[in-house]
Design a protein that fits this description.
single chain; alpha/beta; Rossmann fold; Arc Repressor Mutant, subunit A; four-stranded parallel β-sheet; two-stranded antiparallel ribbon; 10 helices; flat
């Protein structure tokens, strides 16, 4: 397969096209496109998307019902929130966020669906092969994506995704409402914090000092120390030993 035909994983909402329509679709017959039907595009777990990249997909395309036609009312809203978070994480992993796209299609738009695939294929062609799809995969990016995958399993991040509408559309007991700008700033902060924490956890399977971690992960020692203090308070890491006057920390194994 030439890179004019990048490997694409396409998750399609069950209510956009039926099995018979997909079976006869030109998209289904394309050798480079793996179409997977899901009950609702808003129910797609971000872990699955990141695992798909880890397995070597050059791009992931999510196709859902065009608003406001979601069979489950707000599935497309949650899909947008999920993709927003995933794109922020992809930037942190050094994997191009353009490798992930979300598109809306109506059941009568099979021709448009084929064009969306064609346009996405051309977009990926300009980016080149995924660094995780090559014979010799980029180990650093692979570990970054693993950290991102672990981050999206965190309750704090998942809860924030599910609360955007409630926080930005409703007022609290004091008559206050979180603006979209404030929510996005908070989301950026939480995404980065959870990514860094899980990157540290992956590295700390053996004891490390703050300086060693900072050097290994190309981070500022002050940033590493701040996260270690918070993670130790939460029971995520523990003091393993002290060499001279230097404390060594290690991730706590969850049994």
């Amino acid at each position: 397969m030439s890179f004019e035909e990048p490997k694409i994983a396409c998750f399609v909402c069950n209510w956009v096209f039926g099995e018979e329509e997909l079976a006869t679709s030109r998209v289904r017959k394309a050798a480079n496109v793996n179409v997977v039907r899901v009950m609702c595009i808003g129910r797609i777990d971000p872990v699955i998307v990141l695992q798909t990249f880890m397995k070597g997909a050059d791009g992931v395309l999510l196709v859902g019902c065009a608003p406001p036609d979601c069979h489950f009312v707000e599935g497309n809203v949650y899909a947008e929130l999920t993709v927003n978070v995933l794109k922020k994480l992809l930037v942190l992993t050094n994997l191009e966020p353009e490798r992930l796209e979300l598109r809306w299609v109506s059941p009568i738009e099979e021709v448009r669906f084929a064009k969306i695939i064609k346009d996405f294929t051309e977009q990926l062609g300009k980016l080149g092969p995924s660094p995780l799809a090559r014979e010799k995969r980029d180990v650093n990016i692979l570990e970054n994506v693993l950290a991102a995958k672990n981050a999206v399993t965190n309750f704090r991040l998942r809860a924030l995704i599910g609360k955007e509408k409630e926080l930005t559309k409703s007022v609290n007991a004091y008559g206050e409402r979180v603006s979209c700008e404030e929510f996005n700033a908070l989301l950026d902060e939480v995404v980065e914090e959870e990514f860094i924490r899980h990157k540290l956890l992956l590295a700390m399977k053996k004891p490390f000092s703050v300086k060693e971690l900072a050097k290994a992960l190309n981070m500022k020692p002050a940033v590493v120390l701040r996260h270690i203090v918070n993670m130790r308070r939460k029971g995520m890491i523990a003091l393993d030993s002290v060499e001279g006057t230097t404390p060594l920390y290690k991730a706590v194994e969850v049994r």
